[in-house]
Design a protein that fits this description.
Blueprint (H helix, E strand, L loop, with lengths): L2 H12 L4 H19 L8 E7 L8 E8 L1 H11 L5 E6 L17 E13 L3 E20 L2 E8 L10 H20 L4 H10 L5 H11 L4 H9 L3 H53 L5 H13 L6 H16 L5 H13 L14 H11 L4 H16 L7 E5 L6 H12 L3 E5 L7 H4 L12 H9 L5 E5 L12 H8 L8 E2 L6 E2 L5 E6 L7 H4 L3 E4 L5 H19 L7 E3 L1 H10 L7 H19 L7 E3 L4 H5 L17 E8 L2 E12 L5 E5 L4 H16 L8 H5 L2 E5 L13 H13 L7 E3 L2 E2 L5 E2 L4 H11 L3 E5 L3 H5 L3 H4 L3 E5 L2 H8 L8
Parallel strand pairs: 1-3, 7-12, 7-13, 8-9, 9-12, 14-15, 16-20, 18-19, 20-23, 23-24
Antiparallel strand pairs: 1-6, 2-5, 3-4, 4-5, 5-6, 10-11, 16-17, 17-19, 21-22
Helix pairs in contact: 4-5, 4-6, 4-8, 6-8, 7-8, 10-11, 12-13, 12-14, 19-20, 19-21, 23-25
Length: about 800
């Protein structure tokens, strides 16, 4: 019987008009049944049996019960034909199944009860009232047409129990715990009070049975109480269940009290706040929250010069906010939208500093070298000073890491006197980061550009878009396409953010983009920007930067500002040449920082004396063995080896090329060094050209057609590609076949064709910087790159001899003197 059906039955009983008469009758019947139980032979040896699944029944209980199942309904009907109508009741085990009922899936200790009244009897269910008389043991069950019949043996209770001190102690402890339960659980208060007033401590069996029924213990724990025949043990098991129930009730009461206290505290605060609002309102001291917000937005709006379309949207949204309840979710959405509108600098511009001399001074102070970059920026500022309607600019600073792209952007902002805002586009995948989210989404907000304007509080800031070459593109969106509107001078005067849904003028914003390479930037986006290249620094420039900026900065950051510590020029040059040969100065700064940290520790440990001059001989003590060596540059007396010049994302680099030949079953030409497709093709063109003109170069063709020629580009773990190493690879092959080394430390760059023509290449400036940094004395380059060469600052070209060639024959005359007269 489930609890819901039990409750329904109890409701039916309570609805009987003659309920008091029924109770009196039941009391008389209980007395009669008790007298009957005393005689074992008066109870039947066979009786109908029903199996319940909730909790077992105990003697001396009057219980309403709902029975379901045709088998048990037949059992009840058969029992009603007998006078008195007895019915066995027992508990089913976990594996009890009505279709496969057996003695093994029921408990053999149950109770026998007298059917007092039947309320509702159908073919499939019955509602009955039982008067439970005594315990029984079930010996055998039989399934018949008249129902389920059981052979039983009544279990006699002890008539006179010897009340030992232990039994009295158990009984009193149970009663005391039940009284505590009354205080904690008001729902059973009336039932418990009635029982405690009637219970006799000299009847411990009835006390144990009744107390067990009041607990919320599992049906199997309660069944153990029913099965226990020893009075003292039964009392002990019951006391354990009552104790557990009491502990659970105390915990429940504690949790309930904590929740009620919290609710009461919150309610109290709420009522006090509401009362305070009303009091202040009556006294005219303040307005409610909504009125304050509306007044704030109106006050902000008076400062702006916005168009009619913006003003119309603002008033409409303000009226909407006025009608909404502050507790409504829509109220916060509308308030946030108005907050964004009134926080933007509509028509508010920062007065610019277009003083060319001051701008030049700031650029010179902040940066050493990069003269061509500074000149380009000063030209732009000069043009802006002559134009009355100053519009924005879109620059793209391209160069390897550590050359100062971000710091130049900050210097431009300082020179112009504009506020500066920077954000990174690296890894950005969602175009909503650029154009904002629709207001229909939870947590929607404007894009980065509108956020930048709110932060700077001006409509003409300098906004830096860092790492524009690393914008991601996937199924979520394409941020680079969203940037097309922002970085277009013809469109950004009415930039439409998805969140604002109002046009905002970005035409006065100075945009500065940074990138390591241009190849990954979409062509349409690239065309909207003025590109300025930062090739990197040569050793003399790095030395000046270290002396003017880096050493001072690291001394301050490592607590050495007041200490008399200095670096000699030779020590800084050793760091530059042996530990930091990259195009920028980032690694150089790291090395100086590492030395400063070591010095700080030695000062704390009092291991050095001040003042101290760091010399070149002391550098390995702090930085260990050099990372770079002079062997990176191929010198004289090495046939088949040539220095090529390469361009990478991190600036220019020296590309060593080696060639050798060997006797092998495999004949022909092979390349190694993780070369890209274009570079492999370039090497094959060089090999074909050399073999086709072998007679002119005095090379034994038959010898090398029967041998394997192997060309290798060291640093095999680094991918390499591009056509600019063509003449270097051809020269390497001729040097191998002639067994003659190149004339001097010379670097080559240029694409070669099958006819021997030397074609132009890119990245010349970076390659010259790399050659200067690495000690190359001569450079051979295509004649068609003369225009690019003229744009390279003189400081970078200083100390290097340049050769301009149109054909590979000219390369041989320069690099291999033995062929000078033959070609």
């Amino acid at each position: 019987m489930n609890d819901q059906n039990k409750d329904n039955l109890e409701d039916d009983i309570e609805s009987i008009d003659d309920i008091e008469v029924l109770k009196d009758k039941l009391t008389d019947d209980v007395s009669t049944s008790t007298a009957i139980v005393k005689a074992k032979h008066t109870l039947p040896k066979r009786t109908g049996l029903v199996v319940i699944t909730h909790r077992p029944l105990f003697p001396n209980m009057i219980v309403p019960l709902v029975i379901e199942g045709e088998l048990f309904v037949k059992t009840i009907k058969t029992a009603l034909n007998n006078k008195p109508s007895y019915l066995g009741v027992t508990l089913g085990k976990d594996d009890f199944n009505l279709k496969k009922i057996s003695i093994n899936n029921i408990f053999t200790i149950g109770t026998i009860a007298r059917i007092v009244r039947v309320f509702n009897l159908t073919d499939k269910s019955a509602q009955i009232l039982l008067d439970v008389t005594s315990r029984i043991q079930i010996k055998k069950i039989t399934k018949t047409k008249k129902g389920l019949i059981a052979d039983i043996t009544p279990i006699e209770e002890e008539e006179k129990i010897k009340l030992t001190d232990s039994i009295r102690a158990y009984s009193r402890e149970i009663i005391n715990n039940l009284k505590e339960l009354i205080r904690l659980n008001p729902l059973i208060k009336e039932e418990l009070n009635q029982f405690i007033s009637q219970v006799n401590i000299e009847d411990p069996q009835r006390l144990a049975d009744f107390a067990a029924t009041l607990t919320s213990a599992s049906r199997f724990d309660v069944q153990k109480i029913l099965e226990e025949e020893n009075s003292q043990k039964r009392l002990g098991k019951t006391l354990l269940l009552v104790k557990k129930e009491l502990t659970l009730s105390r915990l429940q009461a504690k949790i309930s009290q904590q929740i009620e206290e919290k609710i009461s505290s919150n309610q109290r605060k709420f009522f006090l706040k509401e009362q305070l609002k009303e009091i202040r309102k009556e006294l005219g001291l303040s307005k409610d929250e909504k009125s304050q917000e509306i007044e704030k937005f109106k006050s902000r709006a008076k400062k702006f010069k916005w168009g009619n379309d913006v003003d119309e949207v603002f008033k409409e949204e303000l009226n909407k906010l006025n009608l909404l309840d502050p507790q409504s979710p829509e109220f916060n959405v509308s308030r946030n939208y108005l907050d964004w509108i009134t926080s933007l600098p509509w028509g508010i511009y920062k007065k610019e500093n277009l003083d060319l001399a001051k701008a030049k001074k700031i650029l010179e102070k902040d940066h050493f070298g990069l003269e061509d970059v500074k000149e380009s920026i000063l030209d732009m500022i000069a043009a802006m000073s002559l134009h009355k309607n100053v519009s924005g600019r879109i620059l793209c600073l391209v160069g390897p890491p550590g050359v100062g792209k971000t710091s130049i952007g900050k210097s431009i902002a300082r020179a112009l006197g504009r506020p500066f805002f920077r954000f990174s586009l690296g890894g950005m995948r969602d175009e909503a980061e650029i154009k904002g989210h629709r207001r229909t989404y939870i947590g929607a907000m404007p894009g980065k550009f509108i956020q930048a304007l709110k932060t700077t509080k001006k409509s003409n800031p300098v906004i830096m878009l860092d790492e524009i070459d690393k914008v991601s593109k996937n199924y979520i969106g394409d941020p680079s396409s969203a940037l097309l509107e922002v970085l277009d001078k013809e469109q950004n005067s009415s930039f439409l953010d998805h969140y604002l849904d109002l046009p905002f003028d970005l035409s006065k914003v100075f945009f500065i983009c940074t990138a390591n390479q241009l190849d990954s930037i979409p062509e349409a986006l690239k065309n909207r920007m003025d590109v300025i290249r930062l090739p990197g620094y040569i050793a003399t420039e790095k030395l000046a930067i270290a002396k003017r900026y880096l050493v001072k900065k690291q001394k301050i950051e490592n607590g050495l500002r007041l200490k008399k510590i200095s670096f000699s020029d030779k020590s800084l040059l050793k760091i530059i040449e042996d530990y930091a040969r990259e195009a920028g100065v980032r690694n150089l700064e790291k090395m100086i920082a590492k030395i400063c940290r070591s010095l700080a520790r030695k000062i704390v440990e009092k291991k050095i004396k001040l003042p101290l001059m760091i010399t070149s001989h002391m550098i390995p003590q702090y930085l260990q063995s050099p990372i770079f060596t002079k062997d990176d540059i191929i010198g004289e007396n090495v046939s088949g080896c040539v220095n090529g010049l390469a361009w990478t994302n991190y600036g220019g680099a020296i590309l060593s090329i080696e060639a050798t030949d060997m006797t092998s079953n495999q004949k022909g030409f092979k390349q190694t060094g993780q070369l890209g497709k274009v570079m492999v093709e370039s090497s094959e063109i060089a090999y074909s050209y050399v073999m086709a003109n072998a007679k002119k170069f005095s090379v034994d063709v038959e010898k090398y057609t029967s041998r394997l020629v192997h060309l290798h580009v060291p640093a095999g773990a680094t991918p390499k590609d591009g056509p600019s190493a063509g003449i270097a690879m051809a020269l390497s092959l001729i040097s191998l076949m002639k067994k003659e080394a190149i004339r001097t430390k010379i670097g080559l760059t240029g694409e070669i064709s099958l006819t021997g023509a030397v074609l132009p290449i890119g990245g010349l400036k970076e390659k010259v910087v790399a050659a200067q940094r690495s000690g190359i004395k001569e450079i051979v380059m295509p004649k068609q790159n003369k225009r690019d060469f003229d744009e390279i600052p003189k400081l970078i070209k200083k100390g290097i001899k340049f050769h301009f060639v149109d054909h590979f024959d000219e390369v041989l005359k320069i690099c291999l003197p033995s062929l000078k007269r033959k070609i």
